Amino acid sequence: MYLCSVKMHYLVIIVLFLFVSCSQKKQQETVVTPWGEIADTIPVDDDFDLEDIQRNGELIALTLTGPDTYYDYHGRHLGAQYLLCQRFADKLGVSLRMEVCRDTSEMLRRLGDGEADLICYPMRKGGPGWIVGADKEDLQMELEQWYQPSMLAEVKKEEDFLLSAKSVKRRVFSPMLNRAGGVISHYDGYLQHYAKTIRWDWRLLAAQCYQESTFDPQARSWAGACGLMQIMPGTADHLGLARSDIFDPEKNIAAAVRYIAELEQAFSDIRVPSERTKFVLAAYNGGSFHIRDAMALARKNGRNAMLWRDVEPFVLGLSRPEYYNDGVVKNGYMRGSETVDYVRRILERWDGYRGVRAPRSSTPTLNGVPQKAKHERKKKYQITE
Question: CB-based contacts of 35: which residues, under 8 Å, 6+ apart?
Answer without folding.
Answer: 104, 123
